[in-house]
Amino acid sequence: MLFGRGGASPAAADRDRSRRHDAAAVLGQRPAAPGAPPGPVNLALMTAEDLERRLAAFFGRRGYTVWPTPARGDVGACLLLCRDDQGVVVQVKRWNAPLGPEVVRATLEAIRQHAGTLRRLGCSRIGGLVVSTAPFTPEARELAGGSGVLLWDRQALEAQLRADAAMQSAGRTPPG
Known about the structure:
By secondary structure, the chain is of the alpha/beta class. It has a single domain, classed as Trna Endonuclease, Chain: A, domain 1 (3-Layer(aba) Sandwich), CATH 3.40.1350. Helices cover 44% and strands 16% of the residues. The protein is built from 5 helices and 5 strands. The protein has helices at 10-27, 48-61, 101-120, 138-147, 154-169; strands at 65-68, 79-83, 86-93, 125-132, 149-152. Strand 3, helix 3 and strand 4 form a beta-alpha-beta unit. Helix 3 packs parallel to helix 4 (138-147). It is globular. The model is unreliable at 3-17, 19-30 and 33-37 (pLDDT under 50).
């Protein structure tokens, strides 16, 4: 289950450390450091890059190894996530207008483009997530539902970030 609960076993932690080392060679870069500042988030003031950094830290705190994709030629992907056998291609859209099915299609293409990399990193279950500051059209939701791509609109994103900030301020570790 994407972003499900459950702790990693020691063997899984060893695999994750090894995967990070292997990923540096496969991707030619280091994973993102999980360190965006906690606290209130005003999405209206954030740039797309700020949002991507916040999400990289968010997923890093949940046990995912996070790799930003190159800015050019990213084929609809902003972040690649990997935890245990689960890989996720994340597309981040900081828009105001409703997003249609073309965004889901771009994410499906990004999954195809990055599936080989995620498989080399040990991910056998690969999915997609579109995170947006805008709503999704009914057509986008229908296509996403049928293809296994998750959609987080502004309301879902704000709820996730609020819960994350509350857990950080309480000094608790978010669920894995």
